[in-house]
Structures are given as structure tokens and as C-alpha cells.
UniProtKB/TrEMBL annotation, chains A, B:
It catalyses: biotin + L-lysyl-[protein] + ATP = N(6)-biotinyl-L-lysyl-[protein] + AMP + diphosphate + H(+). Residues 19-38 bind DNA. Its EC number is 6.3.4.15. The keyword rRNA-binding does not apply. GO terms for cellular component: cytoplasm. This is Bifunctional ligase/repressor BirA. It comes from Paenibacillus rigui. Biotin binds at residues 90-92, 114, 118-120, 185. The keyword Repressor applies. Keywords: ATP-binding, Biotin, DNA-binding, Ligase, Nucleotide-binding, Repressor, Transcription, Transcription regulation. It is an enzyme of class 6 (ligase). Acts both as a biotin--[acetyl-CoA-carboxylase] ligase and a repressor. One of its GO terms (biological process) is protein lipoylation. Residues 67-258 form the BPL/LPL catalytic domain.
Length: 325, 325
């Protein structure tokens, strides 16, 4: 129905179409027409509505121009195969299915919209149409299973550096891989891995970047904690350019990691981190844990000094800043 | 065709059936009948052949009696759900499919025969009908991803202890999880894991035990390196009893591990190991590595003293004993 409606508007560019006309053409009520137009608005279509004249389509959501992106990429493998979708449930799910069919390293799965985007700890990830970069990259790293956390940090470093270079916004990394600007989240990274004993079979690196969302694009309950590059920069950011830069930065760091190990990535992560030298706490299955974050170790774990002065390591979890009392 | 042939023999127990009779009943040549009987022999059926009388079925392969096994199990979760198959490609594949449909912890997938059993490093695992225990257990351990190698060692410990208790055979563990008797392999363990960041989603513990195979059941190329409990004990071993004991031992150690951590498992592993205090070597992507195995560390890695006296850690690979030169 949405598609039929869009087709009519596209065949009548610059013309006003009345709710009456549309309801006759599509064989539904005027209320139904209004509901469809509202839904299209949420997907990034802009309509002008004038009483007694009807609706006119002003603009369509920007779509990623994949051939153009491909021609600009200077990577060797990352993004050399691109699977582009208008809509998927989750790019990680699509990537998981693809890797079983033999999807090669560097294959990029990208969608204009995710209907069931997934974040860490089983959370949902809000991925409205045309407003962000919702993607997953298939990786087949030549590292043992227990080094997987390195990749989690590596992806965050690549994205943070890309955003800083391209927008000059003060993005920082909250351990392990949340990207924040002024304390608000602008991206989510979710790595899924599959291994046979210590041999890593593949990693799906899911990356969601809130590029051009406006405050009203967010569900109310997350407006206070989420932001976008456009909100922070005060202007729209070119998604294609961001994607090209990110893939290049990521491939470059991935090569450095395979050649030189985790040490250089660790240095970059620490320099971009907003998690260190701060009081931190987290909810664990054993209850609330607190301490003072002093660094990360060679495995990527957060080193936390406890009240009694002893050092402990946190391997996973969602940290919050500040002491609880 | 095999099934029709079996049905005829079952309807005529103790009787000789001539190739002529059978070929008429089944509408095929006598050569075809002979080929089918040979195939059934390979699957564990025993036929007597007397010239001019024909064939008589002496015995059928023993099948696992699942209701009986269930009634004897005293575990809480391990083996409480059993999926039993006459034949699968690989029990790990079946388990992987099942876990996606919500298979719960402790679910056991077991088959009389695997047509494409998988071993470590992409090797095949020979799993003829009715002669072994070919199984996979779904685990959902409450540990971070980087502790997965602990489970690999834990499964080997549980199986080694079970075999020693039940058969008094001198089974030992070759790092990380091969079980040997007198230097020959009697079982294979293959753990496949799936994780979301540091959060382990599930582990499929594939275990193959060569119980009642005879020398002629093995392909020629592995006869020198593989053995079975029956070959070593000089008599058949009851598969059901072995399965029940193994599941109980495994659940018991799994609980100990969740309650007390890796330390007690490490002690048991070291006591059962045949890999320590020996010259070892392994092929790695970087070439041949050699040294002297002195222990395992808290992550389960093998600690190896190199020629210059320095210690290094091996995280994966297939070790061989003895220096290369």
C-alpha cells in the first residue's frame, strides 16, 4: 500500500493530490491515507499538506549510492562486496546467514532501515530509514578465540577516529565500545563470533551510527541518552563519505593489528577513551561492582582499582560513571 | 532397498534365504543382493552365508535404549532432553540447528552413526553405526567468552575419569583434549562456541568415543593411530552404561567449575595429562614450534619452555611429542 501511494506521488511530482482522490484510487478511507502518509513521513519522506488542496511530496529520503561508494573506496577487501538492502530485520542476522553460505572477509551488509536492530545485552537498536549507517562486516581474523575482545576495541577506535577526522566532533570511547559525544551515545557496536575450539571461524562486526537523526526521530525514552552526528554538528553529515572513510580506517587498523598485535591498538584506544581515571560501577550477576578505572590489560579487560587498593579486571558489562553513593 | 531386505530377514529369523529367492522378491540381481548384504555387514549386521543354502541373519547391531538410559540418569539437566537419531551428518550440526530453535542446556543429541562426523582442524571423524557414542551436548555456561578453553579441558577430564573408572584402562589426556590409550586415540572432542561480544551465547560440546570398533572397522590409514575401548579392553563395553556415567561425571565437574572456578579442573587435568614434562612440537602458521611442556596456565594454554629457557604459551594446535631433530 505504501508503495502504491508513493508511485502515485512520483507520477504526480509537484502536484497536490487530495485525500479524496487518493482514497478513491487506492480503494481505502481518507483516514487510512492519512495514516500511510504519517508512516512515510517517519521514513524520511517530506509532504506538504494544504487544506482543500491535499498533499504534495516535497522530498524523498536520501539513499546510499552504492556504485558511487564502491568507486571511491580504496580498500583491498573491506566493502569490496556490498549487499545493500532497503530494509532488513538486523544486518547482523543477514550477515550471519551470508557467512554460512560462504560470504568472504570484508563483505559489507548495509541497510537503509533495520526493523529489529540489536544492541549489546539484548537491547534494541533504533535504526530508522535513511538516517544512519546500519551495517555489518564479515571478518575472518587470523587470531585465536580469546583475542576477540581486541577486535571489539579496534572497531571502536576506527569509528571514533573517523568521526573525529570527518566532523571534528569530540567523540570518545566508553569501555568497551560505546561512542559518546558529551556523554550521549552516537553509535553501537556489536560483535558476534563463532569458533571451533580456539579457532575463530568468523566475526560479524555490527556497527550502527546515528548520522542524521533529529531529536524527534528518537523514541522519547532514549532522547536523553542518545544523540546523532547531525544534532551535535548542527548540520547533516554525508553518510556515503562517512562510510568510505570508516571502511578505510577500519581496514588500515585491522592490518596494523594483524602485523603488530594489540599494543598499537591499545595505545589508540586509551588515547580516545573517556572511561579511564574515573569512578566506575557496573551491575554483575553477583551484584553491584565499583571501583576506579585505571586502564585496560593486554586482553582488553578493564583494570579497576577497588576500595581496598587491590586491582580487579572486568571482562564485560555496561559501565556507568561515578560512585553509587 | 536395505530396509526391504532387512524386513525379509526379520520375517524369516533362523531361516536361510537364497540369493535367488531374494533377488526375485526384491526384483534385482543376485549381485545387487550380495552388495546390499555387504553394506549391512559394515553397519554391524552379522550374516551367515552357506553355499547352496543362502544367507541367514545371525544378529543385528545393538541400539541404544534411550528410555532405559533416561531412567538410569541421575543428572539434573545433562541428558534430560535427548534427541536420538539412527543417522545424522554430524551431531554438532544437528545441535547447532537445535540451539537456534531454543534447545535448552543439557540437551543431548546422539546418533548411532554419523555420515560426516567432524574432528578438530577440519578433520573427519569416523563414526560407524552402533560402534561408538557419537554425541553433542548443548551448554549455556555462565562464563565470559575467553574462558571457553576451560570447558574444552573440562570435557576431556570428565571423559578420561569416566573411562578410567568404568574400564580401568590407562586413558590419558593429550593437550588440549585428545584422549589416548598407549599413544592411540580413543575419542575426539570438538567444542563450537557462539558469542555476542564477551557474552557466551552457547557451546556445543561434540564428543565421539570409539567404544566397540574393531581394527577392521577403521579405515586403513588411521589403524596405526586409532584404537577403541573394546580393542584395548579385549571385550565389548556397554555403551549405555558409559553414556550414563559420562553425563553424570560431566555435569558434576561442570557444577564444580561454576562454583569454584578453573583451579580444581586444572588440577584434575594435570593429573590425567600425558602431555606435560615432555618435549613437544607443533606446526603453526609461522612454522614449526618446539619446546618442553611444563604446565598449563589459568586460561588453559600450554606453557612451553623454549630452548633459550624462556617460557611461551601455546593456545591451540595439534601437538606431537619428541623433538624434531
Amino acid at each position: 500500500m505504501d508503495e502504491q501511494l508513493l508511485q502515485i506521488f512520483e507520477e504526480n511530482t509537484d502536484k497536490f493530490l487530495s485525500g479524496e482522490q487518493l482514497s478513491v484510487k487506492l480503494g481505502c478511507s481518507r483516514t487510512a491515507i492519512w495514516k500511510h502518509i504519517e508512516r512515510l513521513r517517519q521514513e524520511g519522506y517530506v509532504f506538504e499538506a494544504v487544506s482543500r488542496k491535499g498533499y504534495r511530496m516535497i522530498s524523498k529520503p536520501e539513499k546510499l549510492d552504492i556504485p558511487n561508494i564502491s568507486s571511491r573506496l580504496t580498500t583491498e577487501t573491506f566493502g569490496r562486496h556490498i549487499r545493500y538492502f532497503d530494509e532488513v530485520d538486523s544486518t547482523n542476522n543477514t550477515a550471519n546467514a551470508l557467512v554460512k553460505e560462504g560470504g568472504v572477509e570484508g563483505t559489507l551488509i548495509i541497510a537503509e532501515k533495520q526493523t529489529a536492530g540489536r544492541g549489546r545485552m539484548g537491547r534494541q537498536w533504533h535504526s530508522p530509514k535513511g538516517k544512519g549507517l546500519w551495517m555489518s562486516l564479515i571478518l575472518k581474523p587470523r587470531i585465536p578465540l580469546h583475542f576477540t575482545p581486541h577486535l571489539t576495541l579496534l572497531v571502536a577506535v576506527a569509528l571514533c577516529r573517523t568521526i573525529r577526522q570527518l566532523t571534528q566532533l569530540p567523540a570518545g570511547i566508553k569501555w568497551p565500545n560505546d561512542l559518546l559525544i558529551d556523554g550521549k551515545k552516537i553509535s553501537g557496536i556489536l560483535l558476534e563470533s563463532s569458533a571451533e575450539e580456539e579457532k575463530l571461524h568468523h566475526v560479524i562486526a555490527g556497527v550502527g551510527i546515528s548520522v542524521n537523526l533529529q531529536a524527534e526521530d528518537y523514541p522519547e525514552e532514549i532522547r536523553g541518552i542518545a544523540t546523532s552526528l547531525a544534532i551535535e554538528a548542527g548540520k547533516e553529515v554525508n553518510r556515503s563519505e562517512l562510510l568510505v572513510h570508516f571502511l578505510q580506517e577500519l581496514e588500515s587498523l585491522y592490518k596494523v593489528y594483524h602485523e603488530q598485535g594489540f599494543a598499537p591498538i591499545k595505545l589508540l584506544w586509551e588515547a580516545l577513551s573517556v572511561s579511564l581515571n574515573k569512578a566506575v560501577r557496573t551491575q554483575s550477576p553477583q551484584g553491584l561492582k565499583e571501583g576506579f578505572a585505571v586502564g585496560i590489560d593486554d586482553s582488553g579487560a578493564l583494570i579497576v582499582r577497588q576500595e581496598d587498593g587491590s586491582l580487579t579486571k572486568w571482562y564485560s558489562g555496561n559501565i556507568e560513571f561515578g560512585a553509587s553513593s
